[in-house]
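Need residues for this backbone.
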């Protein structure tokens, strides 16, 4: 008889099973363990068959600006009214869904900021269609972001907002802030890569897997599966269905609410969206490891010259010590081009900064930073320059 049939591990982890014990006691032990495993498998089945999200954030919202596929969402309280306080605008990465910033009740960065006393907005870049394959940096930064911020300024009647950019959304926010510093009271960038020459991050991997081969002149809509493959190359196998199931199996004794969070996070990771080939070609050409223009402090967006030296307002840069997508050294390099930026490195990974179980500590740190720098006294609503 093999070890697999006699060892506790071979019986599914039945620690304490004694085949020499009283027959009835042994049978009762096995039946109890069988029921326990059945319960755990039923829990796993329920989790796997339940959608982790439904394409929306956790906090009620209203659309204040719609330019398909982009929307600008204004968060609402339980009574359906906008939150009151200085305005904050969240800018997510355009290659993943926006609701990582508003994932679940109690796990929502945007919702936490709103509840703390801020009129809070989230840009949803949406899901690009075939026609969006021509969208470049100018379209995103001087087009979509500029119109989004203009809509927020009209909505609030203020002249400035606090901007929080995540990942590539932080890159957009850096460029936008350098071009329109008068509109930004403070800038917070989360896991935003500035020095792409640091090996091991998404820019480094994507370049080697073909991002630099995308055509600017004859762009395609890069399939979501291709974009996702670049992220998966950073941790091979970690995003496969098998790996997800094994991960859940190891955690099935956790509270159901915690398991639902695990499942919801996994479903967001799967929800990568297609990307404009022109945008990826331009990012690879300008900000990839070869040119690395952000580290020079100067680049271009369309015909506009961008000088990161124009960013003189308070800046907070957050990196994560175990971030394989945006290596922390590459994020902290912002100090070379924005010397006054406050640099904070936290434990954890790329997603944990915005939706991890302990992320609230970081959220409160960002809130403290914003409160140290109040908006100027509101004047007349800004024009439409």
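Answer:
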């Amino acid at each position: 008889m093999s070890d697999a049939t006699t060892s506790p591990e071979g019986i599914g982890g039945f620690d304490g099973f004694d085949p020499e014990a009283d027959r009835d006691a042994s049978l009762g032990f096995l039946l109890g363990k069988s029921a326990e495993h059945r319960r755990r498998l039923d829990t796993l089945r329920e989790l796997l068959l339940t959608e982790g999200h439904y394409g929306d954030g956790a906090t009620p919202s209203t659309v204040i600006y719609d330019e398909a596929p982009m929307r600008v969402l204004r968060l609402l309280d339980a009574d359906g009214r906008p939150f009151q306080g200085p305005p904050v605008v969240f800018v997510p990465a355009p290659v993943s869904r926006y609701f990582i910033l508003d994932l679940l009740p109690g796990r929502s960065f945007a919702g936490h900021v709103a509840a703390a006393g801020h009129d809070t907005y989230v840009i949803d870049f949406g899901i690009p269609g075939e026609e969006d394959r021509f969208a470049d940096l100018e379209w995103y930064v001087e087009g979509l972001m500029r119109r989004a911020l203009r809509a927020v300024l009209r909505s609030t009647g203020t002249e400035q907002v606090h901007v929080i950019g995540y990942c590539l959304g932080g890159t957009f926010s850096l460029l936008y802030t350098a071009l329109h510093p008068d509109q930004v009271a403070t800038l917070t960038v989360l896991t935003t890569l500035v020095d792409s020459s640091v090996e091991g991050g998404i820019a480094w991997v994507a370049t080697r897997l073909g991002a630099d081969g995308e055509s600017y002149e004859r762009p395609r809509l890069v399939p979501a599966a291709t974009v996702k493959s670049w992220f998966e190359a950073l941790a091979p196998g970690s995003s496969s269905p098998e790996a997800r199931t094994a991960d859940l199996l190891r955690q099935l004794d956790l509270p159901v609410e915690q398991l639902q969070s695990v499942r919801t996070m996994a479903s967001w990771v799967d929800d990568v969206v297609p990307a404009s080939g022109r945008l990826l070609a331009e990012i690879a050409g300008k900000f990839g490891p070869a040119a690395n223009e952000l580290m020079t402090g100067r680049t271009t967006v369309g015909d506009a010259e961008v000088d990161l030296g124009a960013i003189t307002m308070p800046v907070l840069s957050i990196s994560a010590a175990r971030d394989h997508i945006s290596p922390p050294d590459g994020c902290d390099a912002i100090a070379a081009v924005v010397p006054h930026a406050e640099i904070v490195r936290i434990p954890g990974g790329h997603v944990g900064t915005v939706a991890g179980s302990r992320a609230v500590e970081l959220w409160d740190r960002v809130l403290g930073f914003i409160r140290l720098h109040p908006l100027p006294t509101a004047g007349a609503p800004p024009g439409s320059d």
